Amino acid sequence: MTTSEINQIQALLSTPKQIIIVPHKNPDGDAMGSTLALYHYLKGFNHDALVMAPNDYPDFLKWLPGDETVLKYESETERCEILLQKADLIFTLDFNALHRVGDMGDKIGTSEAIKIMIDHHQQPDNYAKFMFSDVRMSSTCEMVYRFIEMLAHENRVTADIATCLYTGIMTDTGSFRFASTTSKTHYIIGKLMEHGAKNAEIHNAIYDTNSYARLQLLGCALKNLKVIPELRTAYITLSQDELNQFDFKKGDTEGFVNYGLSLNNIIFAAIFIEHKKENIIKISLRSKGDFSVNEFSRQYFEGGGHTNAAGGKSDLSLDETIEKFISILPSHKNELTS
Ligand code: 5GP
Ligand code: MN
């Protein structure tokens, strides 16, 4: 962001405003952490702020400070649409295109509110007046900290803000292990701890609150894991029947795809999850090194994301989707094995 843009945002925020903060659909730790952190920050300056999520999110995020204030567009559509119309400012966090919030995207597009994007996904659309978009960032939470820094308000980071930001940086960096983690990321994590983020408690709340059924579902996913060693690829499938058998709840399959990538010599991992109700196969893709799952997903599975982590979908059946996936792979042999 330029100094002029920062000055303009500073001017906008110098008097109380009605502000809506929006994460992407099916929000993850970074999306909820960043939106709730910004909410607490703006509340600290007496803005009438609120987080409006397109739909619900997993229980393991529901302890985040401020969670009880979050509105969900899917279940309170009418009220949310009125609020979107009336808003002075809309912050869109952790997504790069309005279709990533589903039906709510049109309402954001037509609202007269000034839009501010804070995001680290590739190829952002041009719908926001102010764009803080940087694909080198580990997480949107890291960017919100930097945004607060640019506004010279590090001293206004409360324990609630610190807790939310720590959570999203932790989840989006795989607990500080992905290549996107920089010395600045660690510097910010240190600052967040100084401001009151309790690291052990946060790790516990996110990663050590599994249900027995979820671990059984993981067992099922690992049994279904297939490896194509000559293409350094591994993939997992989960059918709707399998999800039902293990009492699937939103968020239960989070992180499963990474098990494929933990295999020696594997650099490309995928998970295909059948969602009968929506009649789609949800796909998560992960890679190590230069192989871009963002490009792969854009080209074949109507999705996108980052170089090493992307999502997509397929309208084919689960078996047909796997067939398609396997038939595509050989054309990428050079990238996968070089
Ligand atoms: P996940 O596999 O965890 O759902 O998503 C991995 C990354 O890709 C996340 O950063 C997510 O925001 C992004 N992503 C997931 N699905 C899509 C999609 O359909 N389109 C785009 N552009 N990004 C996606
Ligand atoms: Mn993110």
From TrEMBL:
GO terms for molecular function: nucleic acid binding. InterPro entries: DDH_dom, DHH_sf, DHHA1_dom, Oligoribo/pAp-PDE_c-di-AMP_PDE. It holds the Pfam family DHHA1. Residues 245-326 form the DHHA1 domain. It comes from the Bacteria. Residues 18-169 form the DDH domain. This is Phosphoesterase. It comes from Formosa agariphila (strain DSM 15362 / KCTC 12365 / LMG 23005 / KMM 3901 / M-2Alg 35-1). The lineage of its organism: Bacteria, Pseudomonadati, Bacteroidota, Flavobacteriia, Flavobacteriales.
